[in-house]
Amino acid sequence: MRKRLFIFIVLGISLFCDVFHVAAAPKTDSRQPTAIFDAQRAFAILEKQCDFGPRPPGSAAHRQTQRYLFTELEKYADNVELQPCQYEVDGVVLRLNNILAEFGAKVVTGVEPIRETLLLAAHWDTRPFADRDPKPENQDKPILGANDGASGVAVLLEIARVLSLHPPPRRIVIVLFDGEDYGRSVDDMFIGSRFFAQNLGKWRPDYGILLDMVGDKDLSLPIERYSWEANREFTQAIWNRASTLGLAPFQQRLGAAILDDHVPLIKVGIPMVNIIDFTYPYWHTVEDTVDKCSPKSLEIVATLVMSIIYDGL
After folding, report:
1. Cβ-contact 288, 281 below 8 angstroms
2. 5 to each of 49, 154, 256, how far by Cα in Å?
3. What CATH number does the domain located at 22-311 have?
4. Euclidean distance between CA atoms 289 and 47, whole angstroms
5. 268, 212, 215: which is closest to 2 by C-alpha?
6. pLDDT tens-place string over residues 273-311
7. CA pair distance 127, 145, nearest whole angstrom
């Protein structure tokens, strides 16, 4: 996930105040699901992805991971589809697949459906080269991507299991993006999300949440600046909910603006928020391994996402 980081040096007092202004208190009348997010199951899903090895497009591990993720989602979702996309980089044709899953499409007796669609997204590919590794000899090696890729996917696959046991009151679309981390420049990155944004069709959401690098043991989640600038009220509501739930890693401050899979969707008018720990010291290095991640971090992020699924904002 090679993202261009923009640090804004000057932040006016009025801007600071806007971040922490809350128009209305978030809901607290949570309807707890009968099936609970299992952090250990989620962590096992993270480990399973890493067991395949690095998963850049075109590799055998990439194909094995696609089959695994599709098969797992088929166990839980009302509908699962591949969204194929071809993309050429330096004369190499990549055959990519976004993995799309739908929940809440069926009418459940006694449940009054809410007429909206929430998108939950992560990327499932990994970077072909560890270009941020401090050791030059490692910089052309592929990364394992325990946090950068596998963590967000792990949260969403375990949430998929919960949704199958406790149907959501609103339609949920889970999208696992392919080709997020491929290129050496941003021109050849976010391939799957750019394709999805231009081919929404029946999958078009009303709003969405992206999870990226959410498994770090030392989890730190300030407000991502692109999300806040594009959809301030929506973004503030999410961090407010985290505060109400007592989720300390969600920090009530503005962080960096990070180019990621949410940006192509913002550009086509979909309110999207990126939940990301961009202070992760092993980003794009060969040290992005399972031992750097924690089930507790996955649980913290999932607690917030499930609250939004079942109670809205």
Report:
1. no
2. 27, 25, 7
3. 3.40.630.10
4. 9
5. 212
6. 999 999 999 999 999 999 999 999 999 999 999 999 999
7. 7
